[in-house]
Amino acid sequence: MLQIRTPKNRKVKRELEKRAPKLVETGKKTLILHGTKTSGVLNEVLTEIYHLKKESAVKYSRKNDGIKPFESGGDASLEFFSLKTDCSIILYGSHSKKRPNNLVIGRTYNQHIYDLVEVGIENFKSMHSFTYDKKLSPRVGSKPFITFIGEGFENVEELKHLKEVLLDLFRGEVVENLNLSGLDRVYVCTAISPNKVFLTHCALRLKKSGSVVPRMELVEVGPSMDMVVRRHRLPTDGLRKEAMKTAKDQAKKEKNVSKDLIQGKIGRIYIPDQKVGDMAIPNKSKGVKRERREAKMKNRDDGPASKRPKEDSEKPKEDLE
User: Fold this and answer.
1) Can you tell me the distance from the alpha carbon of 98 to that of 218, in angstroms, rounded to the nearest whole number?
2) Residue 245: how many CB atoms within 10 A of its CB?
3) Residue 192: partners with Cβ closer than 8 Å, 6 or more residues away
4) Lowest-confidence region among 102-111, 115-124, 254-263, 306-315
5) Taking the CA of residue 18 as centre, how many other CA atoms within 13 Å lie in the half-sphere pointing to its CB?
6) How distant, in Å, are the alpha carbons of 267, 268, 269, 275, 277 from that of 272?
7) Is the Cα dihedral 301, 302, 303, 309 positive or negative?
8) What is the mean pLDDT of residues 216-234?
9) Torsion of CA 42, 48, 50, 53, to 10 degrees
10) CA angle 180-184-188, nearest 5°?
11) pLDDT digits (tens, 9 = 90+) for 257-278
12) Given pLDDT bands bounded at 50, 70 and 90, which one contains residue 2?
């Protein structure tokens, strides 16, 4: 039987509440790991992806042994690091003679590996190799456009899977409304062949077009690279069905409450008939006392004149004589 441990202090309790499931989930965090052996190109790729996702990414610089994501039991370390850092997207880089400049992108569900995509990096160009006006540099944490060009993203199974993973990696936090003036970057993904995708990062420049919708110009700011799909592992049907479940909103509907754009929240109140005649009024109520006091003051003002004072009985009587 599993032992349920309760938090011992408030700090641990707050941390557990952050990691607990929510009706509306926050943005996904990314964990970046290095394998036993990596190349200079792969180190630059991992570093620049970390800079693009700096606010929602965790990067480990130490080398990790024994991580083999596509082998049974080889993904235990990935699940451990995912649980430790509360990250649901993992980037793992390794380099070997058989698979040079190898990058594995994985997603987790309930702190377990959900799916994996393995790509090889070719023709990499870093941010420093592009010359452009520095005023066009995208801001850190801004919401990006992501565009996919090519029929391969709709027809080829490997590219369809890669499209889902890249969307989760770069889109950031999901929002309902977006200010057009805050858009300053675009990720362009082009399907060159059934197993090769060209990825580049561009700055977005908005110009006047004579209409409400502005004219957009793209300025390549890097990084850019070719991704060659090598291996991929899809989730099982049962795991996919479980992960796609959405919790229903448990908020109860408020009765007799409506909302208006101008007046805001409007409530309707029902008051039963008040039977005043059947109410029991005490004899010594404040209202009765006040009425009696007012009546007494009125009678005093309207009453007869005051009586003359009596003669002093001790005063000697006058003699009649």
Assistant:
1) 37
2) 6
3) 150, 198, 226
4) 306-315
5) 13
6) 17, 13, 10, 9, 15
7) positive
8) 93
9) -140
10) 110
11) 888 878 888 888 888 887 777 7
12) very low
CA–CA distance, 163 with 196 (Å, rounded to integer):
12
Rounded distance between C-alpha atoms, residue 213 and residue 289, angstroms:
76
As a whole number of angstroms, the distance between CA 193 and CA 226 comes to 11
Of 282, 253, 256, 252, give the one whose Cα is nearest residue 271. Answer: 256
Tell which phi-psi region holds residue 150, choosing left (phi > 0), alpha (psi between -120 and 50) or beta: left
Cβ within 8 Å of residue 161, ≥6 positions away: 115, 117, 232, 234
Residues in Cβ contact with 130 at an 8 Å cutoff, skipping those fewer than 6 apart: 220, 221, 222
The H or E element spanning position 82 is: helix 76-85
Residue 107 dihedral angles phi and psi, to the nearest 5°: -120, 150
Residues near 20 by beta carbon (within 8 Å), at least 6 away in sequence = none
- Which token pair is 267? 């409530």
Omega before residue 223 within 30° of 0, cis: yes
Residue 229 pairs in a beta bridge with 119
pTM exceeds 0.85, yes or no = no
How many Cα atoms occupy the beta-carbon half-sphere of 117 within 13 Å?
A: 22
Which H or E element spans position 204? strand 196-207
Residue 251 banded pLDDT, cuts 50, 70, 90: low
Please report where in the chains the tokens 């990067």 appear, as a residue: 59
- Rounded Cα gap, residues 314 and 317, in angstroms: 9
Least confident of 72-81, 123-132, 133-142, 245-254: 245-254
**CA distance readout (Å), 11 to 5, 15, 253:** 15, 6, 34
What is the chain's length? 321
User: When comparing pLDDT for 207 and 125, which is higher?
Assistant: 125
Residue 320's identity, in one-letter code, is: L
Contact by Cβ (8 Å): 116, 164: no
